[in-house]
Amino acid sequence: MTGPPKDPATPAKAQLPLPLPVFTPSYERESFIVSASNEAAWRAAQTWRSSRELLLVICGPEGAGKTHLASILAIDGGTFCSAEAPPSENRSALILFDDLPVGEPKAFLGIIDELMEAGTRVVLIGNGSPATWAGGFEDLRTRIESAPRATILEPDEALIETVIAKGFRDRQLEVDRSVVVFAAPRLPRTFAAAHAFVARADALALNAKRGITVPLAQQLVDSIS
């Protein structure tokens, strides 16, 4: 099967520019799309929200929407912080640690214990398997493993389309849906690939001073696949 024609304005093997500086994505409830890969995580998070459990674990691949899901839990108030920089005395009723695993697992367990003893709810957010977050410290591993868990899986093709489209919207780029439909089934089925595609498309289009088209998308898909 013959693919779409190459865009003559861009050589097929052109050097890709570096991605643009970090931008602020949208974490609104309306922009979190529930699909087969995150439905169980969504339900687990909502169940925890209405329960009396103090600790929740949110895990999954990089770029899967873990922080987005956690932000929805914190919509009525919550503080995001680093495991290496625990919250001050003026803490909220919900603390979200968005950088697991931790460097000092024993000290971090002490932080969790102190927060929970005070009745503070705690959300731990990280990439990959939570079993690896404890750094070999058994007490922390046991605490993490015993907590309710919201696990986001790698995306299906429909969610890849959604991630790409949202990425363009977050960057305030008007891109025809044909670009999204072309790219989604041709990229590796990972969140990382979808985010890389959006960032590189943005950078390359800006560098070439032109819009994001299907021929440009084909060039990028070839470089990411």
Automatic annotation (TrEMBL):
GO terms for biological process: DNA replication initiation. Gene3D superfamilies: 1.10.8.60, P-loop containing nucleotide triphosphate hydrolases. Signal peptide: none annotated. Transmembrane segments: none annotated. One of its GO terms (cellular component) is plasma membrane. InterPro entries: P-loop_NTPase. One of its GO terms (molecular function) is DNA replication origin binding. This is Chromosomal replication initiator protein DnaA. It comes from hydrothermal vent metagenome. The lineage of its organism: unclassified sequences, metagenomes, ecological metagenomes.
